[in-house]
Amino acid sequence: MMANPDDHGLLTDDADENDSFPFPFNQAALLTALNNLRDAADLHQLRTQAAALVQEIANPMGMLIPDQIGETVELTVGYLRGEIDQIAATLTLERARYYIDRLVRAIGEERRQPFSDINLNRWKEREYDDLITDSLWQIDRRDSTGAHTADYWGNFVPQIPNQIMRRYTRRGEWVIDLFAGLGTSLIEGQRLGRNTLGIELQPTVAARARALIEQEPNPYAVVREVLDGDSATYNLAEALAQHGQRSAQLLMLHPPYFDIIRFSDDSRDLSNAASVDQFLEMLGRVVEHAAPLLDKGRFMALVIGDKYARGDWIPLGFLAMQAVLQRGFVLKSIVVKNVEGTAGKRARRELWRYRALVGGFYVFKHEYLFLFRKQ
Predict the structure, then answer these.
(1) pTM for this one?
(2) Which residues in the chain are classed under CATH 3.40.50.150?
(3) Which of 54, 59, 222, 269 has the maximum number of C-beta atoms within 10 A of its C-beta?
(4) 260-271 pLDDT per residue, tens
């Protein structure tokens, strides 16, 4: 029995968990149905046709099923239902036709930024639901699937490189992580089809990273190479040239937060800098060394936090931001991310609370993600 076409909620009543999976539709038939919907004489006729179209979407033998010769378009059923629901719920034909035209463009045209695979004509698709566009990131639990591990102090949560690569790169492009650690960015890169090079100063850490990366499937057969060396001096141009590349499309930096954690005894390690000023100078050299290999107009992501020294707050994040801005970049965004799940503070929560009360300070629960664009 067909629902009342004037009931604005009719179009999502049949939604189920399968609505989130892409499904191939007959593109020509779908566009014809939408054009017929656009020609409706009044709202009642439009809603009647919209209800019939929703039933057709769910019909496994219907006219929207791809044939052997026509073009197909992949859409999630939930997205298509939602768009038609919005069309049917309008109060004027003019507005309904605006939404129909938008859906027609989404089906027939792709619109992407030169630095992203996101189809802006389908930005409401469920595949983009988890993309964060706000400047406050609250990630309660790190992704621990596959080869990801949290048993290294310097690891950032995998959700950070996942979000950044999806927003600021296209499949097949090149990403350089200048502080590779255990290869979190490289693991995410191979999941997303991005080629990645990671520079790691400590050979033992680099070896562990390679072992973890090899455990992860590589469905797009991309390059994911961990290179032993100093990111301030490593010959990145040669490393790219070995793969037939002259430049990268994204730089990622997750350096030590000065001396909060001493990662090694190596004097080239930023965590061994003698002062904040020397830390910023060393970080600046890393940026200066890598920046020429980043394509003009493309992005660099810096993840860093602040620190306390003798009870005083050191705004390391903003000092690092200024160091980057002095080297040919413009600031696009500042993201504040929670660090609720850090292993050290989680194990000693009560102690840190006591220290905060005694010392008159607040316990760090955030870090920064600075997004820069090369001029």
Answers:
(1) 0.83
(2) 136-374
(3) 54
(4) 888 899 999 999
